[in-house]
Amino acid sequence: GRRPANPAFWWVSAEGEEVKWSFAELGSLSRKAANVLSEACALQRGDRAVAVLPRVPEWWLLNVACVRAGIVFIPGTSQLTAKDISYRLQASKAKCIITSDTLAPALESVLPSSQFLKSKLIVGRGSRDGWLNFKELL
């Protein structure tokens, strides 16, 4: 008989929630995510996107999507201060910031000072004014 394929991605939260993606699912989802970045966020090859996310499945998905689309993925931890984020946005000339619905309020204070930022993408169940919702666009 045939054995089921090993998952390409297997994530388990602290609460025991599991996300498993096969290689085919990861390929399909990363193509869709690359389209979100290219179309909804208007990013082009060589543009930079700063991600301030906890290690949720979307972190890896967006990382693969950036590779697929030729976008430079700049990871940041949720422990960065407003000063750290402001510096990273300015130094990298990032055109997009990606964060979670819970971290977005803390980031909003530094975003107006970033002259290069064009789009803001939120990952999570919630939504905010002025932010694109990744799950809805996916």
TrEMBL record:
<dbReference type="InterPro" id="IPR042099">
    <property type="entry name" value="ANL_N_sf"/>
</dbReference>
<keyword id="KW-0547">Nucleotide-binding</keyword>
<dbReference type="GO" id="GO:0006637">
    <property type="term" value="P:acyl-CoA metabolic process"/>
</dbReference>
<feature type="domain" description="AMP-dependent synthetase/ligase">
    <location>
        <begin position="2"/>
        <end position="127"/>
    </location>
</feature>
<dbReference type="InterPro" id="IPR000873">
    <property type="entry name" value="AMP-dep_synth/lig_dom"/>
</dbReference>
<comment type="similarity">
    <text>Belongs to the ATP-dependent AMP-binding enzyme family.</text>
</comment>
<dbReference type="GO" id="GO:0006633">
    <property type="term" value="P:fatty acid biosynthetic process"/>
</dbReference>
<keyword id="KW-0443">Lipid metabolism</keyword>
<dbReference type="InterPro" id="IPR051087">
    <property type="entry name" value="Mitochondrial_ACSM"/>
</dbReference>
<dbReference type="GO" id="GO:0004321">
    <property type="term" value="F:fatty-acyl-CoA synthase activity"/>
</dbReference>
<dbReference type="Pfam" id="PF00501">
    <property type="entry name" value="AMP-binding"/>
</dbReference>
<keyword id="KW-0436">Ligase</keyword>
<dbReference type="GO" id="GO:0005759">
    <property type="term" value="C:mitochondrial matrix"/>
</dbReference>
<keyword id="KW-0067">ATP-binding</keyword>
<protein>
    <recommendedName>
        <fullName>medium-chain acyl-CoA ligase</fullName>
        <ecNumber>6.2.1.2</ecNumber>
    </recommendedName>
</protein>
<keyword id="KW-0276">Fatty acid metabolism</keyword>
<dbReference type="GO" id="GO:0031956">
    <property type="term" value="F:medium-chain fatty acid-CoA ligase activity"/>
</dbReference>
<dbReference type="GO" id="GO:0005524">
    <property type="term" value="F:ATP binding"/>
</dbReference>
